[in-house]
Amino acid sequence: xxxxxxxVLVDLDGRAxxxxxxxxxxxxxxxxxxxxxxxxxxxxxxVLLTRRAEHKLTWPGVWTNSCCGHPLPGxxxxxxxxxxxxxxxxxxxxxxxxxxPAFSYxxxxxxxxxxxxxxxxxxxxxxxxxxxxPDEVGEVRWMPxxxxxxxxxxxxxxxxxxxxxxxxxxxxxxSDPLAWQPASPDDLPPAARP
Length: 194
Prior knowledge:
194 residues, alpha+beta, Nucleoside Triphosphate Pyrophosphohydrolase, globular
């Protein structure tokens, strides 16, 4: 028997309120919950983009950043990033750098389904091949960061709503993503602190 995955519900100050089954929180009245986004880069500063699998409940078939997910109750967010990178993209990495500790967003699909997440953003660098899990990822592609950021900021690239909000904030960190200075884990919301 497989136990159902739970997510951490949070208040507007980022404090944990409890947990709920992941399958129950994504609807028309999605409560604010803890998640993460990650951007995977190679040594040339190219960013790995993924197209969400067509059967995903939220934003199926939409291009987005490298990997998103939810920490399990009690799991450090950086550990969740590494766990999901392994599961979704076959990547074994030893470190995820915190970039945007308190990012949050709310977005609604045309069918009324809402994403509402407190979503710290991480940078990961790799030098290994990507092996996408078709249960999660429909397609992958590498793109120079400058090209991706400019396409996103200009509105020319069709990407997920959370990625559209994150890229301008990441671009403020500098033009070279490999030189971005990580944020302190102390700046994470209380529910996300190790």
